[in-house]
Amino acid sequence: MKKKNLISVVGPTGIGKTRLAIDLAQHFNTEIVSCDSRQFFKEMKIGTAAPSEEELAGAPHHFIGNLSIEEYYSIGQYEEDALQKLNELYKTHDTVILVGGSMMYEKAVIEGLNDLPEANADNQEKLQKILEEEGVEKLQEILKELDPEYFGVVDIHNHRRLLRAIDVIWQTHKKYSEQIAVSQDSRDFNVIRIGIEASREELYDRINRRVDIMMENGLLDEVKGLEKFKGLTGLNTVGYSELFKYFDGEWDLDFAVSEIKKNSRRYAKRQLTWYRKADDIHYLQLGYTQQDYEDLLHWICEQFQK
């Protein structure tokens, strides 16, 4: 019988996962492992809505601001590091909390990733040429045709992710989405997934407000300080790529901010599509009451006993 438990808090960007994860960590007197791939980088606190000092003090967190944007870090490395951290934590805790909206990173922890081939130099060169001559849109088009399932959930603005998926498909002649879907039997802990959901209107309103708050909190200065690194993969992401275009004089500031909001909403839509396919997520409604929260704790304890 599996003795240890992992409670994974999931949901789209801006829905309130951090608060729920901290409440659960305090209730179970345990620690939090982040699977938000953007929050790994210490230079990107504002634009990734990393937990505040106060929130970090609420419960011990791991994989928040633990890397520099200049460091290369793959999903495979994260899987290895996260499992090692869980093994450490399970020595003193029966339950650990996992939280984050990076779908593939959560999957890496709770299910594992298949052994995928190393990058093929010829494929990479060919794809790089397509990117330079026809733009990221062409890569999006190729991936959509080869693997519509993965296209539906990947960050389509991150050209490295597109290059990697297409390369693997070309090498293996199999869909990338199928190759990264493996059995959960490889994990020796129980997984309970908790989600927070809201109406599309409420969620989009929260996202728009959150972007305004990021701007008030100094996102512009944060991005300006990272301008020399703008070619790095980690910065090719919502909140940063738009403001780099402002600094390059391509866009005015109001338009750049409106694009951050639009791209954040699009990312949330992809997250919702991904989570909707799962039948093992127990949902709380946004704005849940204390009674709802207590009912959730009761439900979790019942799952533990099973």
Automatic annotation (TrEMBL):
Name the gene behind this protein: miaA
What the entry lists under PANTHER family is as follows: TRNA DIMETHYLALLYLTRANSFERASE
Where do the Guanylate kinase-like domain residues begin and end? Answer: 4-97
Q: What is its EC number?
A: 2.5.1.75
Record site: Interaction with substrate tRNA: S102
What's a Gene Ontology MF term here?
tRNA dimethylallyltransferase activity
- Protein name stated in the entry: tRNA dimethylallyltransferase
Cite the residue spans of the region called Interaction with substrate tRNA. Answer: 36-39
Q: Does the keyword Transferase apply?
A: yes
Necessary cofactors: Mg(2+)
Return the InterPro entries for the record: Dimethylallyltransferase, Guanylate_kin-like_dom, IPT, P-loop_NTPase
What HAMAP family does this protein's entry cite?
IPP_trans
Q: What does the record give as the reaction this protein catalyses? A: adenosine(37) in tRNA + dimethylallyl diphosphate = N(6)-dimethylallyladenosine(37) in tRNA + diphosphate
Question: Its quaternary structure?
Answer: Monomer.
Annotated family = Belongs to the IPP transferase family.
Residues engaged in binding substrate: T13, G14, I15, G16, K17, T18
